[in-house]
Amino acid sequence: MKKALLVQGGWDGHQPKEVSELLGDQLRQHDFDVTISDTLDSFKELDLSQFDLIVPLWTMGKIERDQLTPVVEAVKSGVGLAGVHGGMCDAFRNETEWQFMTGGQWVAHPGNDGVEYTVEMNPNEPSPITAGTPTLHIKSEQYYMHVDPAIRVLATTTFADGTVMPVVWTKSWGKGRVFYCSLGHQRNILEPADVLEMVTRGMLWAAGVEIGEPA
To answer: N or C: which end of the chain has fewer CB within 10 A?
Structure first.
């Protein structure tokens, strides 16, 4: 049985508890042993090498060096990392090493919440994570990101000025697989079947589960 650690907290506006429950339930349905923690100390107090996947859900927080280093080293050694929205890529604004590992950092959401936009799968980067996922019609925050040029972009959105912005990506960090999706302002944005399936498949991929084409 694979094991996942979900660490939730930070800004309550992103509903970290509710999102962690949703994603934890998805992992349990795929036979994961899921641990949900509400403290960053779990990164230093638990043996992270015993987990197959770490899912941070912690927006706008501060992480200490003795909490950060174990995560960076665990992923580098092969533990998967997966996350959504600000819970992973607006977690620790002062920690560039975290941003280097995750592949990006939120910088703006023009129009704030309630913007209607589409998310297109990248036809040039076929992946079992996004296979079968249609164009998504979203009403939420449209994330403008600073991104690592090393990421593999699986889906994008286009801003009103024509800027094409990554929404879903994967990357490597040492031996570890990293998955990110900028959707997920609150639980209801992740609940639609197409979004939830894509995010679940991303988590499974990061954990090293071989995922085939969707039925």
So the answer is: C
